[in-house]
Structure formats: structure tokens, C-alpha cells
Amino acid sequence: MGPATTALFAILKSSTFIIFLEKVTGITQLIPDPHFKGSGVHQTLPGGHLAVHADFNRYPAYGLYRRVNVFIYLNPNWEESFGGHLELWSKDLKHCQQRILPILGRLVVFSSTDFSYHGHSSPLTCPKGRSRRSVAMYYYTRDRPASECLHSRCEDGHSTLWQNISCSTCEDSLCKDYH
User: Fold this and answer.
1) Which of 1, 32, 117, 138 could serve as 89's disulfide partner, Cβ 3.0–4.6 Å?
2) Buried-exposed string 85-114: b where 16+ CB fall within 10 A, e elsewhere
3) Which letter does DSSP use for residue 93 in this model?
């Protein structure tokens, strides 16, 4: 990573930013991703996509639970027609509740649970030579409420839970308009 990216990650790991996240999310004692397990700089090329999913929930080496995702988008002059919107889906996967255009400087913060389904499922239509870029940082805690887990025991960790979303299962126009 270059100096600007290194400085940005230092800010995302700073106590000032963590206090901000704790106030925004209501989740206390957040620990920033110590070794960039999934965190980092992400890029999707034209035609690429990221299927709807819920993220892995455990960092076994440290006994931590993944709790908060933070994305900062790095896409100047990103047009609506390029696609790549971050989609936030309902727990039952029947509603695309929010579509977020990945424009330069946009900060997205959301809770990471076993049901926080998200992705950008439609292939990018940006011109050749462009890509969808973002910085991602993940935050952990030493425990988590059982209500955020698939199983009654949160200790039962899982890898990424990929979902197959099709318009036939969607109940709202937000999804149908874009799938």
C-alpha cells in the first residue's frame, strides 16, 4: 500500500474513529481487523460482480466475532448506469432494502450479522479501463448477542454465506428494477 492508503487505514484503526463507530452502531469495545483478514483495498473490473452474501462471522485465531463493516468508495465520476451499487437485503432475502451508489468518498457503515446480506449482484457496466474500487475495514468484538447468529451458539462459526438471489423471489420493485 502507498502512503495515502496506509494513512487512511491508520485513521480507520484510530481510537477517534472507533469511538465514532461505537456511537453510530451502539456496539461497544470494537477491535479493528488486526491483520486485514478480508479488510483492504477491493476492486471489481467491468463485468464483475459480488454475489449477495453474509460475511464470515468468526476470527478463530483471536476468538473474535465480526460485528461492523466499513466501506469507503474510491470512484470519481461514477455514473448510475455503471452499476456496482451496494445492495443491502432483508433477513428473509425477499427485499433489497437499500441500493447505494459507490461514489468517491462515500462512507458506508453497517452491522455484520449472520443475516446482514449484501453485495453488488449485477455485473458492472462501466467502460473498459474503469473499475469499482473501495477500502474495506472490519471490526470485531470478543462476544456477540445470540440474536445475531444463525445457531443458538454463536461459537459455531461459518465462512461466507453466499446466496442465490433471483427476481422470482423478490417482492419489491427496487429489486425487480435491477435484476
Assistant:
1) 117
2) bbbbbeeebeebeebbebeeebebebebbb
3) S
The pLDDT tens digits of the residues spanning 136-164 come to 999 999 999 999 998 877 888 889 999 98
pTM of the predicted protein model: 0.91
DSSP for residue 75: -
What CATH fold (topology level) applies to the domain 3-176?
Jelly Rolls (2.60.120)
Q: How many CA atoms lie within 13 A of 110 on its CB side?
A: 20
Domain boundary assignment for the chain: 3-176
What tens digit of pLDDT does each residue of 115-129 get?
Answer: 999 999 999 999 999
User: What are the DSSP E strand ranges found in the chain?
Assistant: 31-32, 40-44, 50-54, 58-59, 64-73, 86-89, 96-100, 107-111, 118-120, 132-141, 161-162
Q: Nearest-5° angle of CA 155, CA 161, CA 164? A: 155
Identify which of 74, 66, 83, 69 has the alpha carbon closest to the alpha carbon of residue 125.
Answer: 83
122 near 179, Cβ under 8 Å?
yes
**Dihedral (Cα; 42, 48, 51, 57), 10-degree rounding:** -20
